[in-house]
């Protein structure tokens, strides 16, 4: 798919949902559901999306939803997968998890690891707003270095973001990809591609959060695009261990095509306490990581290590 007009007009995230204005997670969910279609069962652990969908018996999601405890979304989805198999109804039904970074990087990691190790037939989406936004913007292990949260209020987080993708890749999933809602065609195509594979699949989506990241809600798409265009959030996919850059990230192997990370950081109040030296360190980290991505792209067997 190359044109935005080719995306389905059917809305499975209905108007009137409870997301904040400019919510990156709601925008990403809308795009993802358009690609998944109605034959989808979605498992949602505690988090922003369990609020966005609405309160029972009403729901903004026009597909079956299973809400579950914070730590066990992948385990619940595994049960759904096995139940469908037992009733011979698993054909052409997508079982997906839609979990935030807290339910993925932190408290849900054990059930996620088990499902990935068993190669359970599901698509696990992590919408990553880089903190526990729903409960008051507390730090998660997905929070990046230097970001201000309510539990790191003075100088920002001192640790780097956990490398969740390397943890998932250690289990050799059938399909793994990154995405942002600001580039919907790239995200849409990756969901369509993930549907074609069986076994465990993982898609990691950066979802800017206006109140948590401290920016005006009109900049949600701008910031998600800047995350990609500065090289902060590379768009790629790993299919059966083969690594490929995708979409706008294809041109970023040449550092001259990358925007300065300052353009991304300056729009967000959560990075207001960063010093010039710290900004330079973040830029150096990005440049070093892109050297590694260049190595993966050029590796003769094109296999992700």
TrEMBL record:
It comes from the Archaea. InterPro entries: PorB-like, THDP-binding, TPP_enzyme_TPP-bd. Coiled coil: none annotated. Keywords: Oxidoreductase. The keyword Oxidoreductase applies. GO terms for biological process: organic acid metabolic process; sulfur compound biosynthetic process. Pfam families: TPP_enzyme_C. This is 3-methyl-2-oxobutanoate dehydrogenase subunit beta. It comes from Odinarchaeota yellowstonii (strain LCB_4).
């Amino acid at each position: 798919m190359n044109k935005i007009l080719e995306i389905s007009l059917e809305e499975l995230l209905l108007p009137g949902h409870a997301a904040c204005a400019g919510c990156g997670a709601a925008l990403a969910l809308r795009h993802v559901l358009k690609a998944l279609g109605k034959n989808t069962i979605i498992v949602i652990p505690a988090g922003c999306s369990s609020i966005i969908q609405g309160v029972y018996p009403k729901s903004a999601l026009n597909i079956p939803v299973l809400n579950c405890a914070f730590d066990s979304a992948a385990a619940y989805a595994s049960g759904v997968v096995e139940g469908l198999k037992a009733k011979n109804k698993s054909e052409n039904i997508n079982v997906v998890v839609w979990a935030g970074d807290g339910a993925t990087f932190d408290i849900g990691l054990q059930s996620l690891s088990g499902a990935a190790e068993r190669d359970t037939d599901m698509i696990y989406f992590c919408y990553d707003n880089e903190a526990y936004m729903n409960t008051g913007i507390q730090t998660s292990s997905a929070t990046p270095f230097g970001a201000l949260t309510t539990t790191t209020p003075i100088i920002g987080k001192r640790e780097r973001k956990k490398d969740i993708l390397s943890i998932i890749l250690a289990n050799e999933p059938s399909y793994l990809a990154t995405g942002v809602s600001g580039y919907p065609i790239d995200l849409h195509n990756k969901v369509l591609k993930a549907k074609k594979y069986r076994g465990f699949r993982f898609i990691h989506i950066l979802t800017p959060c206006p109140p948590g990241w401290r920016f005006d809600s009109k900049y949600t798409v701008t910031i998600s695009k800047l995350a990609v265009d500065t090289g902060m959030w590379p768009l790629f996919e790993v299919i059966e261990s083969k690594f490929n850059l995708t979409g706008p990230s294809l041109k970023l192997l040449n550092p001259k095509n990358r925007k300065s990370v300052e353009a991304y950081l300056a729009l967000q109040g959560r990075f207001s306490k960063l010093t010039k030296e710290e900004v330079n360190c973040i830029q150096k980290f990005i440049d070093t990581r892109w050297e590694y991505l260049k190595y993966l792209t050029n590796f003769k067997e094109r296999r992700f290590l």
